[in-house]
Amino acid sequence: MTNAEKEFYYNLSPRDALAHDIKDARRIYMEDGLYNSEIRQGLKNEVKMNKEIYPELFEK
């Protein structure tokens, strides 16, 4: 990751950082041919869990 990319990432809101990370994980799974309904559900659960554990960070 370049310094510019790091700076961009570090300045994201928690909500945007989570979305970025989930999108990146999805991309990696897809590139590796591993993305399926189980992975999709796991990523959705990760988002849900983060929202439940840290609700104050994910308010709109």
From TrEMBL:
Source species, domain of life:
Bacteria
- Protein name according to UniProt: Uncharacterized protein
> Which species?
Orenia marismortui
